[in-house]
Design a protein that fits this description.
The protein has 521 residues and is α+β, with helices and mostly antiparallel strands. The protein has nine helices and 26 strands. A hairpin with a 7-residue loop joins strand 14 and strand 15. The relative contact order is 0.16.
Length: 521
């Protein structure tokens, strides 16, 4: 483990919520990009750029990226949210023992969502993460306080000491700057840095906010009561709330607010934190879900839930609402901080048309047809033979998250990876895009043959049928799948790691996303 006093804590700015092309910069809004660009000149299909050995393993890339940054920053309207890594390590026992009802299919889906969680011999590798929400004027709300120092109650099993104080210092947040500490629940890996082992509050100017039901459920000799609740009561800093509570802002559409939401089950008074930036939303889940297996299959029980049935209902309701509203999730124990809820009841792992070796683009088997373009402002265009429909065969890998990396008159780039907080490992690069209907961000696309009606739509808009024409359906956060239809002059499939935060001197085969810039001195 790293020394918590070490100031050289890695720091990364996550561009997912405020960088990149102007049209796709908002993570919470699932805006649809639509356009018909008449661009001359078809470009032939170019050779594939293969992955280098250093970047060919998505699981290894995800793990190294997750450990590379102790702080990841995203913006949600007026709020800046910082994911703060207090520690990382194995959970005692095996993953199967912790989630006894999980099936082989559940584990397969979970592995694709969070490959870094799977250690040797069925060990569960997890992060211990807190969050800081910085409001205008520099006021700070801290959500959970991690595992704490040596001598904290988590010392018996967690990888103490944590490094939260050093991580906060790296972001410029002093203990005195924190005005509110939200404790999602009173488990020892979530309150460890609330007080010192001597009972002194670590954040001297903060009120510590916890649900009344959580405190009421503690017996008089419970460690949480004696170690953290009673010292905070003596200091006059414990603030109990009852139910849904607005901490800051205005809880109204477009207003922007930080709101506490009761999410019981893991513990009796568990709460989550909704950060609504006035359109872009983030839900800090606490321990509503503690492993990707519960993200993939919400009905999976965790052994240490106080009320498993209530926990299941809470988890299913929370994830369903997040899907419906396009809300991003901020997790405490997954090996990346920001994730999107999975589509419900997805039966297949999140990669499609898997093949070993070199990925390929397979033209659809269909007879050549001659289409006569109708007269229009451009006059009669030459006939063009139709054979441009493509079913894309993606390379083997976890291509779960997708978004638009770049879009202009000359090029459309879609990026894909197991998670887009830090990097992506696959791109579909369309040259000379003539017709584009594509969500700004989506998950789990199924590529298919374009329908005759879709071919007619493209021909009406562009006066021709270019090659290729690519069609798909995907989850874009709404109640129904979103359709995608892209016609372009050419298509190239590119593998290789593309980092979405500043990294000096990328290795061969690695590059930076187009919006990434070096940090200001």
């Amino acid at each position: 483990m790293n020394d918590p006093t070490d100031p050289a804590v890695p720091f990364a700015e996550d561009p997912g919520a405020g960088a990149g092309p102007e049209a796709v910069s908002d993570p919470g809004r699932r805006r649809v990009l639509r356009g018909a660009l008449a661009v001359a000149g078809a470009v032939a299909l170019r050779p594939l750029v293969a992955a280098t050995p250093a970047t060919a393993d998505p699981a290894g890339s995800a793990a190294s990226a997750a450990s590379a940054a102790a702080v990841v920053v995203r913006r949600f309207g007026r709020y800046e949210v910082l994911a703060l890594l207090d520690a990382h390590g194995p959970f005692p026992g095996t993953a199967q023992a912790a989630f006894p009802d999980a099936t082989a299919t559940d584990w397969e889906r979970a592995r694709r969502l969070d490959p870094a969680a799977f250690g040797p011999n069925d060990t569960w590798q997890l992060d211990f993460r807190c969050y800081a929400v910085r409001r205008p004027g520099g006021r700070v709300t801290l959500v959970d306080t991690g595992i704490g120092p040596v001598g904290s109650p988590a010392s018996g099993w967690a990888p103490v000491p944590g490094r939260l104080p050093a991580v906060l210092a790296r972001t410029g947040i002093a203990p005195a700057d924190v005005e509110t500490v939200v404790l999602t629940h009173l488990h020892e890996d979530h309150y460890g840095w609330s007080v010192t082992p001597e009972g002194v509050p670590v954040f001297p100017n903060a009120r510590y906010v916890v649900q009344h039901a959580e405190v009421a459920a503690l017996g008089p000799t419970r460690t949480a009561r004696t170690y953290v609740v009673e010292p905070l009561l003596r200091a006059g800093q414990l603030h109990e709330v009852d139910g849904r509570t607005v901490l800051a802002g205005r809880a109204r559409p477009g207003g922007g607010a930080i709101t506490l939401l009761p999410t019981p089950g893991h513990t009796p008074g568990h709460q989550s934190v909704l950060v609504d930036g006035g359109g872009d939303r983030l839900l800090l889940t606490g321990d509503v879900l503690v492993h990707a297996v519960q993200l993939a299959t919400p009905a999976v029980r965790y052994l240490f839930e106080a009320d498993p049935e209530t926990a299941r209902r809470t988890r299913e309701q929370l994830l369903g609402e997040a899907r419906r509203t396009g809300t991003l999730l901020g997790t405490a124990h997954l090996n990346r901080p920001f994730v999107r809820p999975c589509p419900p009841a997805a039966p297949k792992p999140p990669h499609w048309h898997p093949r070993t070796g070199t990925p390929a683009l397979t033209p659809l088997a269909q007879p050549k047809q001659t289409m006569t373009n109708p007269p229009g402002p451009r006059g009669n265009l030459p006939d063009r033979r139709f054979g441009g429909g493509l079913v894309i065969q993606l390379p083997e890998g976890s291509w779960w998250d997708w978004d638009v990396v770049e879009w202009n008159a000359g090029r459309l780039r879609l990026g894909a990876g197991s998670d887009l907080s830090y990097h992506h490992g696959l791109e579909l690069v369309f040259s000379d895009p003539l017709f584009v209907t594509c969500p700004a961000a989506f998950q789990d696309p199924t590529f298919r043959e374009p329908t005759p009606e879709e071919v007619r739509v493209v021909s009406r808009q562009t006066g021709e049928i270019p090659a290729p024409v690519v069609a798909f359906e995907a989850d874009a956060g709404g109640p129904e799948p979103a359709a995608g239809l892209i016609a372009a002059g050419g298509l190239e499939v590119v593998q290789g790691t593309v980092f979405r935060y500043w990294r000096p001197n990328p290795a061969p085969g690695e590059r930076l996303a187009p919006w990434v810039r070096p940090p200001q001195a």
